[in-house]
């Protein structure tokens, strides 16, 4: 059709008078020239031949009015905030119902539920436009059930339902460091508790105060607990990756046959040390290992451990996994706990103010478990912890001894490790579009 139209235009001048023929030819030439110029102007590499201008047009939005004339109730789904009371919840949900408030404050089960309100849990309500409460459902702290009050023609009545426990959803996030770790995690909606746990997990290999660089990246797989569709809090970190200054660090959570969960590298190396250097988080050494003038007996004796000064009541942690071989009182040691560990190692914790509740001989403890509290029982002039590491019952300097590494996974556990962690590593790979190779 286009070719036919061009032929007609080409033959047209032959049928016109000479004057008009000249004008038509000039017109056709001009149109063709403009066509070439237009084609040249639309070259993708050339700037537009006219100035660009941003035009903002304000559009009037029709006001949306909610009419309460029909009497339909409002549905609210809120979460309990820190420091909330039932009165503050009523105000936030626009409930103006003194009868319902009095019922809750005077009902025996209602008073128990109100005392156990926990932030983050879901509160649902059905409220009339005039503020009258039709239904209110509150979480029950114990058992994950719900306590509900309802209004009917006979007044207000209460019922309790054993709803399902909090549901768990596995979520994934990734981000890039621009200024700080928490700035990057906030930007991708990662909860602060997960960011803190990530810093703790990688803290043995990355100093998050000095080692971070712009462009470092992270990926994390973690659990979120939901209450009837509303997120309550973050759960465990299941797997995480951190790329710091080009070096990639990956960890996964693995549950062993004994039920204990630990973080491992992707190749099955435990991140935990076999022994912590100190059983106290915040302390200072007041007396080292070796010969010293005894502060009470005033003679020179061998000090078979290290003294850590700390306030009375400071929690004391087991420095390694082990079994309680003694808990009680021993002469100058006062209250003491002795733990037996693998490979002929044992540790002693003396001068305790008290023991952890229920601690008994034969109990198994994990590294980091609280076993007692700092005191000054026995031969002590002030509150402190006397700590010993023994090999074949011979004391060694806890600050200088070469401590064993964490026990590696056996061949049998390696297969279980692969089965548990490969799906988690695949999630990390999905975030990064990388390939996962299973550990053999």
Automatic annotation (TrEMBL):
GO molecular function, one term: metal ion binding
InterPro entries, alphabetized: Cell_wall_metabolism_enzyme, Dup_hybrid_motif, M23ase_b-sheet_dom, NMB0315-like_N
UniProt-listed GO biological process terms: proteolysis
Location of the DD-carboxypeptidase/endopeptidase Mpg-like N-terminal domain: 76-132
Domain M23ase beta-sheet core: residue ranges: 302-398
Keywords per UniProt: Hydrolase, Metal-binding, Metalloprotease, Protease, Zinc
Keyword Metal-binding (UniProt): yes
Pfam families in alphabetical order: NMB0315_dom_I, Peptidase_M23
Cofactor: Zn(2+)
UniProt superkingdom: Bacteria
PANTHER family xrefs: CELL DIVISION PROTEIN YTFB, PEPTIDASE-RELATED
Name of protein: M23 family peptidase
């Amino acid at each position: 059709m286009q070719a036919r139209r061009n032929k007609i235009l080409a033959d047209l001048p032959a049928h016109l008078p000479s004057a008009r023929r000249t004008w038509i030819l000039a017109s056709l030439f001009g149109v063709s020239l403009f066509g070439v110029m237009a084609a040249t102007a639309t070259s993708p590499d050339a700037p537009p031949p006219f100035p660009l201008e941003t035009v903002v047009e304000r559009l009037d939005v029709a006001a949306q009015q909610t009419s309460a004339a029909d009497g339909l109730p409002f549905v609210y789904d809120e979460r309990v905030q820190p420091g909330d009371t039932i009165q503050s919840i009523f105000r936030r949900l626009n409930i103006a119902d003194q009868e319902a408030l009095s019922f809750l404050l005077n009902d025996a089960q209602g008073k128990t539920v109100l005392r156990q309100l926990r932030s983050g849990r879901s509160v649902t309500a059905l409220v009339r436009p005039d503020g009258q409460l039709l239904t209110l459902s509150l979480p029950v702290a114990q058992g994950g059930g719900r306590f509900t009050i309802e209004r009917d023609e006979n007044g207000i009545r209460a019922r309790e339902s054993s709803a399902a426990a909090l549901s768990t959803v596995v979520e994934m996030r990734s981000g890039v460091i621009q200024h700080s770790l928490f700035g990057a995690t906030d930007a991708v909606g990662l909860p602060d508790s997960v960011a803190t746990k990530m810093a703790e997990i990688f803290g043995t290999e990355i100093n998050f105060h000095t080692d971070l660089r712009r462009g470092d990246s992270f990926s994390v797989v973690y659990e979120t607990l939901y209450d009837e569709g509303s997120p309550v809090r973050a759960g465990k970190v299941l797997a995480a990756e951190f790329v710091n200054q080009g070096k990639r660090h990956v960890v996964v959570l693995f549950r062993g046959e004994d039920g204990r969960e630990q973080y491992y590298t992707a190749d099955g190396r435990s991140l935990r040390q076999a022994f912590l250097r100190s059983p106290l988080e915040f302390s200072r050494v007041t007396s080292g290992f070796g010969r010293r003038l005894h502060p009470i007996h005033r003679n020179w004796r061998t000090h078979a451990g290290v003294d850590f000064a700390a306030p009375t009541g400071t929690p004391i942690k087991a420095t390694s996994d082990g079994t309680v071989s003694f808990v009680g009182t021993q002469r100058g040691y006062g209250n003491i706990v002795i733990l037996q560990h693998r490979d002929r190692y044992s540790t002693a914790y003396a001068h305790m103010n008290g023991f952890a509740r229920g601690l008994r001989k034969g109990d198994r403890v994990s590294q980091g478990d609280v076993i007692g509290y700092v005191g000054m029982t026995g031969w002590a002039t002030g509150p402190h912890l006397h700590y010993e590491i023994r090999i074949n019952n011979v004391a060694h300097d806890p600050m200088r001894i070469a401590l064993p590494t964490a026990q590696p996974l056996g061949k049998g556990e390696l297969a279980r490790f692969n089965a548990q962690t490969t799906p988690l590593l695949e999630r990390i790979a999905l975030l990064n579009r990388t390939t996962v190779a299973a550990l053999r």
